[in-house]
Here is the input.
Amino acid sequence: MNILEYENYQEKKSHGSESFPYITYPCSIPLDFERVPAHWHDETEIIYIKKGCGLITVDLEEYPVQEGSILLILPGQVHSIEQYLDYKMEYINIIFKLEMLLAKQTDICNSRYFTPLLDGTLRLTTHFTPGMPFYNEVAGCINAADEVCRTNPPAFQLVIKGQLFLLFSILISNCCETSASRKNQKSLEKMKRIIKYIETNYASKISIEEMADALDLSQSHFMKFFKNTMGTTFTEYLNDYRLTMASRLLISSEASILDIAAEVGFDNLSYFNRLFKKRFYVTPREYRKRFAG
Here is the structure.
């Protein structure tokens, strides 16, 4: 199970398919999950905070968010979502492929706007809050698309596409930003490689030596880079990721706790139980009893 699989276990309230790759669903922290670990994907994502507050990190920059906050996450941007102190947060998560707006034949919209967005040479404002210039216009497009998902009228796909085109015309006309520095981009590319490696291999043993070799770094350089970039050690991050996956499996599957521990990469059950309780303040069994439907 990778990060998107566990996100997508949430009930979809709209229509995502190969022919129309647009999905929107509600999330709640910590009711659904305490945090979404740092990850990246090729889709565009919009996070719209409806209630409460939390912390969202995008490309190593932390954004405190609260009711009304809107975050635009472009393809390839590394991002995470987590609870702030004991506060709850409810938000709408919208994920779609930017390619759904591309013309089959190259035109000026492709070459001037969407291709630069896809290859990272064009950056847009990430965080919008009430009172900012163009906030109402941005929120209006998202609200209109969400209402269409809720009511499901005939030809809803055309309305959603129309709102997305309008949204990007507002953003590109008024909310462009300069790209991250070359140094920061290099750090992000390294982090993306590490994150994808963990997503693919977290169920197996992963050593610091293995990760350092994968990045062609010394072990000491790798550990220093990871701690400086992520604010935690690699081992702590890996265990935290595994525990997040375990918490999802405890709710969504009927597998035994021993099997779940092994499936996410822990070969010692007592060690898994100890780390799980430290992270979630309850045992895996208590967690399943409390949150499983």
